[in-house]
Each structure stands twice: as C-alpha cells, then as structure tokens.
C-alpha cells in the first residue's frame, strides 16, 4: 500500500483510497471508470442529497431501526454537508453509471466516514457506521437520486422566479419610457401599421411573465417525490410508515412542499415532471432568444440598419474596425438560450430511455436542468443591468419610419376601400414618396384631416 492511502474492501475486492478522503472505495472506482467531463455535481444536488440522507436517518431513528447514537452522528455529518463543508469530497463525474449509483455511494461514504470519525473511529473502518447498512438504510439509489433531483431543481426554480420578475419589470419600465415613441411596426419583416416602441417593450415583459408563470406551474409537479419507494418502487427494506415519515422530514429540512408520489412505481419509471420543467425552460429560452434577436435587429446600424434602438456599449466590438460596438449582451443571451434548447432535446431522450421499472438516465437530466437554470440565474441579472435598463430610443429614426411607411394607408381603408388604398400604397412605393404627403397631394385629405387621421398616438391604439 502506498503512503498516504488506506486500504478498503467491497464486494469486488480491495482498493487503495486516499487516506484523508471522506469518500471511499466505490467512489474511487467511479472516478477511475468515468473520467468523462471533469464536471462534478451541482452544489444544489449535494445539499439535496444530504437533506435526503438526514431525513431518512431521522425517520429510521423514529421507527427504532437506527440507534440514536448513530443517528446523531449521521445527522450531524449531513448538517455539515448542508453547510457546504464537504463539497470537495463529492468527486464523481456528472456523467457515469446509470441511475446515479456512484453519486449515491459517494454521499453514503462521505457521511459514513464523517459519522465514524464523530463516534471516535477512523475513516475507512466502517465499524461504527457503515455506508450501506446505516447511512443507506431503507433507501436505494432508485428512489434517493430522483428525490434529490426533484428537490434540487424545485429549489433552483424558486430562485429563478424573482430574477424573471425583475427582468420583466425592467422591460415594462423601458416600455413606459417609450410610450410615446411612435414607429412603424413590421410584420413578415415588411412595413406595417404604426405602433409605439413602448408597446413592443411591454409585450416583451408580458412574454417573460407568461413563461415564468408556466415554469412555476410545471415545477409544482416536482413536489411528488419517490423517497421510500426503494428498489423498483416496492419499498423493500423499509419499515411500515417509513415513507411518509421520511418525506415529511425532508419537506421540513428543505422548506419545500414535498409529498410522497401517488404511485411509487411510476415515480421511478417516469420522469415526466422533469421533462415538463425542461420544456418550460425551453419555452422560456425560445422567448428570450426571440427578444434578444429583436433587440439586435432594432439596434442594427448605426447607418445601414434599423437603428431605432441604442443599446448600452459594454465593450469594443471589433479587433480590426475602430469604434465598432456590437450587441454583445444580446448575443450572449442567444447562446445561453441555444444551449438550453439543446439540453431539452437531451432531456427528452433521457426521459424516453427509461425502460421497465427504472429510468437510469436521471443524472443527465439532473445536470442539464440545474446547469441551465444556473446559466439564467447568473446572466439574466447582468443582462438586465448592463443592457435592458440602459436601452435608449432613437426617436428621430422611429418618427421617420412612421412617416415613411406606406402601410399608413391601412388607416384610410375604412374610408376609401381596400383596393384604392392598395393602389395608393403602390404609387407611394413606386414614386418614393410618403403616403403621409401623397394623400394631401391627391386631394384625398386636407393637411388638417391627414394630421388628425395619422396622429401618431391615436393611430397606435391603446398604449397598454
């Protein structure tokens, strides 16, 4: 045996483990088997797993299947993990063995070795506290990993909700600022009827609000957890009452509205709640991409694009073209959105790959969801502060587009009919003159009547 290692044994044989590590032999095997990405479990999953282990420990102690001395030591080890003390001990890659078995054993070993130490033993002895017999009592990877995943994702969605509310508010505030900035709408990327820039920005806010509401609605599906179902949803190795007690304890520890799943077998076979949340994140990402691209188009220019908006300059835009400024914040939001949309497809494949009595692809979905939410949590406040709140309107450009748009003839249609209005439209385009001037030239309206009909604010309809 090498220096600074200890020897541990499992059902496959013996293996050297770093002497100072709280993880053990099965974690070491997983490290060797799956050196895939270098990515480790999200802190939210680590905390959720510690909460699951503590809840099960307390339920077992309440039922008398775990003595109080061991229960206190295990509970304290879990509390230390919940405080972030042992995050570095969770070393298995996010890609690995199906179902999350490696991560469950990583957690069991860290908790067991710390509890062993608290009871006066040494790491790796497992004489006082064993990873399987005590820490994993009444549990399986089958039920603990999806339960921890649901709890972790539910908690992170809750953190995302106020961030989305803040972004929507920022768009509404810009909308109020731009309430009287009249411009030409564009449908099919062609000139359309008048609209205000404020109305467009209020619509962005409404879209974000709608996506946030749907995400919150779907996340409630995660409240029904698999804990206590153990292997194949049978509840094997648990005592009567364990499931209800463990879930009740978990809800108290996490502060989440968790309850036992209606059908424990379904809870292991199907992860429709995860795909529902993934789909809501995808829909949110699609709306954010759409809004970001609108901002990029409306700010295009400054001389050869739409140039209706001026986005805050956050960095030089080119290494070769002096003075160029790009819509960098919107571009970054696009890339984040693309990643979330792609991950939703991976999550869909993972969901349909759950054969028979267990979906073993949960680790992929767990990683994708938690990391996607984190991308939004990190960037949306920055996007709000460094882009949205500083957007300004080029009012002269907007007014010019309003005056030049041949689609102003739409406002004449009720009086002169669709066919005559269409002819007027074509003449304005052919001659390169504005409908605004043409209606007076042709004697269809007096200047006063024209100004009244084409009044910028009246012609855009209700501001809200």
Describe this structure in words.
The chain is mainly alpha-helical and 464 residues long. Helix content is 57%, strand content 7%. It contains 17 helices and eight strands. The strands form four sheets. It has a two-stranded antiparallel ribbon. A two-stranded antiparallel ribbon has the order 3-4. It is elongated, with a radius of gyration of 30 Å.
Brief sketch in words of this structure:
The protein is mainly α and 464 residues long. Helices cover 57% and strands 7% of the residues.
| Low-pLDDT ranges | none
CATH architecture of the largest domain: Up-down Bundle
SS-based class = mainly alpha
Q: Which sequence of SSEs, written as H and E, runs from N to C?
A: EEHHHHHHEEHEHEHHEHHEHHHHH
Number of strands: 8
Shape: elongated
Q: Main β-sheet, in a few words? A: 2 strands, antiparallel
Walk across the major sheet and give the strand order. Answer: 1-2
Radius of gyration: 30 Å
CATH superfamily of the largest domain: Fumarase/aspartase (Central domain)
Query: Helicity range of the residues?
Result: 55-70%
Give the distance, in angstroms, between the N- and C-terminal Cα atoms.
Answer: 75 Å
User: What is the percentage of strand-forming residues?
Assistant: 5-15%
What's the CATH C level of the largest domain? Mainly Alpha
Mean of residue pLDDT values: 93
Which oligomerization state do the chains in this entry correspond to?
single chain
């Amino acid at each position: 045996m090498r220096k600074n290692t200890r020897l541990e044994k499992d059902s496959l044989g013996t293996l050297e483990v770093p002497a100072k590590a709280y993880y053990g032999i099965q974690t070491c095997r997983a490290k060797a088997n799956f050196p895939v990405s270098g990515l480790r479990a999200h802190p939210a999953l680590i905390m959720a797993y510690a909460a699951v282990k503590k809840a099960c420990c307390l339920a077992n102690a309440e039922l008398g299947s775990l003595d109080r001395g061991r229960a206190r030591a295990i509970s304290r080890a879990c509390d230390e993990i919940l405080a972030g003390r042992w995050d570095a001990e969770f070393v298995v890659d996010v890609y690995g063995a199906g179902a999350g078995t490696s991560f469950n054993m990583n957690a069991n070993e860290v908790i067991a070795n710390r509890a062993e130490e608290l009871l006066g033993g040494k790491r790796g002895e497992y004489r006082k506290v064993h990873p399987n017999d005590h820490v994993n009592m009444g549990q399986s990877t089958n039920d603990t990993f999806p339960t921890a995943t649901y709890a972790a994702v539910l908690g992170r969605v809750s953190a995302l909700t106020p961030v989305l509310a803040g972004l929507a508010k920022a768009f509404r505030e810009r909308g109020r600022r731009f309430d009287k900035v009249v411009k030409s709408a564009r449908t099919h990327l062609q000139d359309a009827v008048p609209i205000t820039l404020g109305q467009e920005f209020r619509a962005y806010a409404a879209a974000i609000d709608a996506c946030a509401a749907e995400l919150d609605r779907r996340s409630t599906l995660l409240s029904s957890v698999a804990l206590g179902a153990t292997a194949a949803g049978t509840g094997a190795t648990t005592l009567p009452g364990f499931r209800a007690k463990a879930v009740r304890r978990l809800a108290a520890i996490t502060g989440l509205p968790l309850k036992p799943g209606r059908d424990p077998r379904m809870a292991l076979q199907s992860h429709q709640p995860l795909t529902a949340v993934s789909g809501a994140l995808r829909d949110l990402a699609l709306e954010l991409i759409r809004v970001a691209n609108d901002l990029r188009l409306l700010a295009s220019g400054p001389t050869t694009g739409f140039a209706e908006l001026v986005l805050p300059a956050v960095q030089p835009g080119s290494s070769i073209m002096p003075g160029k400024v790009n819509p960098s914040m919107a571009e970054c939001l696009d890339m984040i959105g693309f990643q979330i949309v792609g991950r939703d497809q991976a999550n869909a494949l993972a969901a349909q790959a759950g054969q028979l009595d267990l979906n073993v692809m949960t680790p992929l979905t767990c990683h994708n969801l938690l990391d996607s939410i984190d991308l939004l949590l990190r960037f949306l406040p920055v996007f709000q502060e460094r882009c949205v709140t500083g957007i300004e309107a080029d009012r002269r450009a907007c007014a010019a587009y309003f005056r030049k748009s041949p689609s102003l003839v739409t406002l004449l249609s009720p009086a002169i009919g669709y066919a005559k209005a269409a002819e007027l439209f074509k003449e304005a385009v052919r001659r390169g003159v504005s409908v605004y001037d043409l209606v007076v030239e042709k004697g269809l309206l007096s200047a006063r009547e024209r100004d009244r009909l084409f009044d910028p604010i009246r012609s855009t309809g209700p501001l809200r």
